[in-house]
Amino acid sequence: MIPISYTSNMKIVYFLIIVILGASIVFVSNNVFAQSSSSATESIKEDIKKSQKTVIIEPIFTQAAYAQPGFYSYYRNQCPKCLIIHLPHNFIGSFVSSGKADSLLKQNYTFVTDLDVDKNPKILKKYDKVIVLHNEYVTIKEFNAITSHPHVIYLYPNALYAQVSVDYNKYTLSLIRGHGYPHQHISNGFNWKFDNSKFEYDTKCKNWSFHKINNGMMLNCYPENIMRSDESLMDAIESS
Fold this sequence. Notes:
By secondary structure, this protein is an alpha/beta fold. The chain folds into 2 domains: 1-52; 53-239, no CATH class. The chain is 38% helix and 17% strand. The chain contains 7 helices and 10 strands. It has helices at 4-52, 60-66, 71-75, 99-105, 114-119, 140-147, 231-239; strands at residues 54-58, 84-86, 110-113, 129-132, 137-138, 152-154, 162-167, 172-177, 210-213, 216-219. The strands form 2 sheets. The protein has a 6-stranded mixed beta sheet. Strands 2-8-7-5 form a 4-stranded mixed beta sheet.
């Protein structure tokens, strides 16, 4: 028979051991949680930092060109005066102006419009990577700013195709050169050797891939229909 005093003492010892072990577990757990939280915070900060180094250019000039009446009214011989059109005050994405890509990429990246780049071409120098959407219509200032940047992702074929100019007093856009104007034999308004407009008709993008040019990467299809469904494309944009 074990003495009562001995039993009581053992209970106290067991109790103290449990308390000490419990405190140790809480301490270790808190440290692990703190380290995990710290790592997660650093990861988020790094993602934000990466995002801030990338900018997309919203094609507001292209939006204007496809509006009715617009440049395409002129191309169809429906509106001889439609070489000068009004600019929209807000960008509204659609199939022809990379609407899905714009709304998706804006969640992670900074964005500017064609107007911002035309007014201040040096703005692109603030970023390590520039993502060009279906910016089919651009000014000469914007063209030079994009093609002189060392790291551009040309996400849509047919970008930098026609040259336009902006009248900021009248807030209008004028077609200057390209797309068969002022002569039918003129296709690319900048005579750009990297024009890849032949790929714009592949809208299914079943075998999409990027290929290198002198200042970045070009996609070989028109990705509007797969932007929300193909995660590997988003990964490629992020890692390019």
